[in-house]
Amino acid sequence: MPDVDASALLLVSGKVRSDADFVFYNQPAHASGAVRHEGKKTGADGVTDTLAVDLGRVEPAVERIVLAASADGGSFGRVPGLRVRVLDAASGAEIMRYESQDATVETAFLLGELYRRQGNWKFRAVGQGYGSGLAGLATDFGISVDDEPAPRTAPAAPAPVRPAPVRSEPVRPTRPAAPAPPDPVPAPTPVRLSKVTLTKDAPSVSLAKQGGTSGAMRVNLNWQMRKQFRGWGAKLGRAVANHSDLDLDLCALYELSDGRKGVVQALGNAFGALHQPPYIHLDGDDRTGAVSSGENLTINLDHKDRLRRIVIFVTIYEGARSFADLDATVTLQPQHGAPIDFALGECTVPSTVCSLALITNTGSDLVVQREARFLVPERGVSPQRTIDYAYGWGMNWTPGRK
């Protein structure tokens, strides 16, 4: 079945003002803070992809917010139960719903839109299909799209320096040189729509082939309790989630090329470092799971030759007995290259620790392998030690606090 993604366009006179008015998986938040792409969740009702809209923060010039969906890997005729639901963020109550039942070969849909009418915001269903995918829909509203990687060219060789000829004539007065023209304003960089979704059938990806082997790679984990906000939809207002007592910790086991091993985690304040070993940094200990913050690891791929392997994993610190009660998604976003995302899937065991991904340096490439392994620690064995046993790290562990 195709992978479906939600997106939103903020329009003035029927068009975007710039590419920044396009909110989607590669550009998940509008600069105004009014619209956010919160990502996918997997639950009993299927996969949802959520857009959060804070109408109070929408700029006065914006007249419409178009809500769209695109299918990656097939057409919407293969997607059952496609619908858009408009929910109140505070209560979760459904305000409106639109179900698409006649999709065939379309690869993008303009499902509905929020629009201003006499000082109030209203919603209307649209249901306009596109056979040209997200790129066709986006360009229809003025977005410049470029999915091709920029060509790499060798720097031009400097011109040989030749000695200036000696002139014997007397120096004559010259007119003042005309002022140099101003430097041209660089054209904005078109948005890139490429992405990678790891599944059980396609669990690994080469970072080299995606052009993502340099710069910083951000790993984001976000989560919610399964009872929260079911269905694909847009949430009006600010999201309010009742999982403040739930605390998941994003962690990483690392092995450097010189054989040193360690862990990056909030427990014990082992937050790591980005510009010195281990070249992995945890930015903090988040307890909300919101996609705008969540738990974030950053890996410095400029030092990839110093990294041998990394296991990214998550533990339940408090607030839940098992991952069976949770929906969680993971996104790896290289600074250069397509984002890589996957959902953890259904947990069927009383697991409190899950390995998310294994990143391996093969010598000529970095390979990301989707793991999604739910592990059950033995009595008296910590989640960290359980991951260690599963991947053969061989480290000594002592109790830690945060």
Automatic annotation (TrEMBL):
One Pfam family recorded for the sequence: TerD
Biased composition (Pro residues): 176-189
Occurrences of domain TerD (ranges): 3-141
UniProt region (Disordered), positions on chain: 147-189
Domain of life from the UniProt record: Bacteria
Database matches in InterPro entries: Stress/Tellurium_Resist, Tellurite_resistance_TerA, TerD
Sequence similarity: Belongs to the CAPAB/TerDEXZ family.
Protein name, entry field: Tellurium resistance protein
